[in-house]
Specification:
Length: 155
């Protein structure tokens, strides 16, 4: 399953539209005024299905992930020198990025869960997400949102 993650051009808070490979909007992400990043994810029927909330006052970025109002775990950026790395404590998945922080892969041991690639030459942040199993799409989206928020916080 492929998702295209595209930030809206004119948006006071973080706001994104998420499309499937057919160009249909499957999720909408809206930023909420809060201390740290708080992103709410809505399905195509405008029901809240997920939320990503940044924990403030931490040395490295940490985000709490919620599905349907229940916390499913956190994603933490790990300290590394060259390649960015994140740890998901909800299922033991590991997230690794390339040196330029444009391409990411998520694995469960040696099994590939998803890849995300930042598309260059766009006016807004745009990622292509390739999820192996569709039931992991929402968690995959939260991972990419957390990475993008961590990068924005760094800049």
């Amino acid at each position: 399953m492929k998702l295209l993650f595209k930030q809206r051009f004119f948006s006071w808070f973080d706001s994104y539209d998420i499309y499937n490979e057919f160009g249909e909007t499957v999720y909408t992400v809206k930023g909420v005024l809060s201390w740290g990043h708080c992103l709410k994810i809505y399905d195509s029927a405008n029901r809240e299905v997920g939320m990503l909330k940044e924990q403030v006052l931490t040395f490295l970025p940490k985000f709490h992930m919620f599905l349907y109002g229940n916390e499913i775990g956190t994603i933490n950026k790990e300290f590394t020198f060259f390649r960015p790395k994140f740890y998901l404590n909800c299922n033991g998945w590991e997230v690794e990025g390339d040196l330029f922080e444009w391409d990411y892969s998520v694995k469960d041991g040696s099994q590939l869960i998803m890849t995300a690639s930042k598309k260059l030459w766009n006016l807004t942040d745009t990622y292509e997400i390739d999820v192996i199993q569709p039931e992991n799409a929402l968690v995959a989206l939260m991972i990419v949102l957390a990475i993008d928020a961590a990068k924005c916080g760094k800049n």
